[in-house]
């Protein structure tokens, strides 16, 4: 919840919208070792250019196209070769997803290569993401630095009304236990 709340604070998408989008690509994110904060940064990065409706499907397609290199066909491999992408970096799931995305930046400006690697449904989302890597990095840095849910909870519990409710509960407990 903390990372979703931080995403809502630094971006334009609410926690409930982020959750809905995560449901669409979350399984694929887990299988490709994409952390929650990276997923939230991806959502915040792509929602404005692609719209809420297109983000989940687009990210699912990007992650699917990046996964299972043993099943890649000749077209995918030709796209990788054409762009000069290092397969070891792209397929190393021990690396942060951000680092694997940086390797994919070699696709920028090479529409033929990107078209070979990504399926038609993932090409638009992939191009948009690669054009907005600085935005992604900015969101990721901010999301990682915030403890937003904890801060909000702290503010909520330090209000006068909360203190009055706490005092009432303590008083009621005292009356009940001493009678």
Key features of this structure:
179 residues, mainly alpha
Class per helix and strand makeup? mainly alpha
Low-confidence stretches: none
Helix content: over 70%
- How far the N terminus sits from the C terminus, by CA atoms, comes to 42 Å
| H/E topology pattern | HHHHHHHHHHHH
The oligomeric status of these chains comes to: single chain
Q: Which descriptor suits the 3D outline?
A: elongated
SSE arrangement:
Elements: H1 2-10, H2 15-31, H3 36-50, H4 52-66, H5 74-83, H6 87-91, H7 97-104, H8 111-117, H9 120-131, H10 133-145, H11 148-157, H12 160-177
Describe this entry's structure for a reader.
Helix content is 78%, strand content 0%. The radius of gyration is 22 Å and the shape is elongated. The mean pLDDT is 85. The protein has 179 residues and is mostly helical. The longest helix is centred in the last third of the chain and has 18 residues, at 160-177.
Give a brief outline of the structure.
By secondary structure, the chain is mainly alpha-helical. It has helices spanning 2-10, 15-31, 36-50, 52-66, 74-83, 87-91, 97-104, 111-117, 120-131, 133-145, 148-157, 160-177.
